[in-house]
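Reading is simple: the token line describes the chain's fold. The lines below illustrate.

. . .
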Amino acid sequence: MQNENTRRPLKDCVAVVTGASRGAGRGIALELGAAGATVYVTGRSTRERPAQTYGQLLALSDMQAVPGSIDDTADELTRMGGHGIAVQCDHTREEEVAALIARVEREAGRIDLLVNNAWGGHETFNGVFEAPFWEHPLSNWDSMFDRGVRNHLVASRCAAPLMVRQKKGLILTTTFWDRDHYLRGSLFYDLAKASMTRLAFGMAQDLRSHNVASIAVSPGWMRTEFVLAGHKTDEAHWHERPALARTESPRYLGRAIAALAGDARVMDKSGEVLRVADLAREYGFTDIDGRQVEAFEM
């Protein structure tokens, strides 16, 4: 029989997952909940009012409304064994992020884990995957940097002082990394993801002496709600689409995050960028379908 620590290894963990209404953030929050964590689920979309900035992507995906909400994610992770707390937060607004961190400190007394995942890059996606940089709209810079990279920096700036006082903490930044190869097709995307990876590395240097770790984590090609819609399928039928054979569920990333959060020697990895596929082999977890999906490489 499993004891409580084995069944719920993160039962004493207080986590903040940004951008957790859907996609990667939702997958991360659910797996942290399955491991027993208390998770503050943040983002802009609530059941009553979904985010209003995805009109272009919704049209391309033939979707009527943005899927998911922070409330749905919080409720589901609670059912899975954790404690989900939905907090509406626009991560582009520093005052809202500061209020979020102050609330977590007031209610929980600490933050053990911050997962930087809020990403506005899809808000300006126009359906073009590959084009030279002069043909991509300059609005991609605003969405990927001002509402992407900056989101990660702002949340980290607000949470780091609390972690430093605690002399303990972990900041994980979701990114995409392909062994330093150029992410062909979008210079803006390549620059943004490289910036996120470098952000995690740079923060690690300042935080190391305080026993706070900072790591970038790179998933493969995830079957997010928008990816599934773009291929005219759903999670129950994606196997029928050969083009999706190399994909993984967002919860594969979530299991990587949970494994890192539960690793007592995680400081040894601080400053690194780690691929989910490699972490799956190291920690022995699989995706929800039992596979250890190989790393997605360009």
Strands lie at 14-17, 38-43, 83-88, 113-116, 169-174, 212-218, 273-275. The first strand starts at residue 14 and ends at 17.
